Records
---
Amino acid sequence: PAVEEPIVEEPIAEEPVEEEPAFVAPELKLHISSNLTADSIVVAGTEMVLTLTVEGAEGYEYKIQWQVTEDGVTWTGLSGETGHALSIILAPHHTGMSWRANVEIIAPVK
């Protein structure tokens, strides 16, 4: 009697699941301006207002976190300071401190 070859079925190729592509964050240009100048005379009680301008984030959701450092290395977020402007009433303990804004792109606006 003839021996039949076993039937080998080829696996059915599964359609790849299309995942939503991760977005590429845009390159941002950040500019911080101040109401104080290099020539300003600053005494305790002087208000310093830093204003952030963000370019290149059109069409994206982003969040801002103002930060401060005393040593130029370790930056600490300022609680609740998440807007485009930061206002600080300067005091003697602010001497030598620096401030910056950290901007994080979250996602494209849908």
---
Amino acid sequence: RISCDQIHFTNIDPLEERTYGLTTHAKLRMSQRGISKDAMAVVLQYGRRVHGQNCIVYFFGKKEFKRHLHSKQNAGKWADFRDIHVIVSPNDSTIITTYKNQKITMKADF
């Protein structure tokens, strides 16, 4: 990776508070796609995790949204976070990219 900043998610449960590296590519895609740091924090904490080839995909979809509605949490505020994917390197917890898609699919092989 050419350049990598760090991003610390403080609104994640303090017991699982983490710092993720954030590539220049990921910052660019966040800006282009209107995906906020808070949206990524929700996906990383509450989303489904799927291990792909050389990456971990976090996804906050319909099932996760409904689960929080049933658990009486205010999931309505998370409606904008639905279908967001966050692709993370398994080696160093660096966020590689982020995008929106209704299906859990890989946009590229990493």
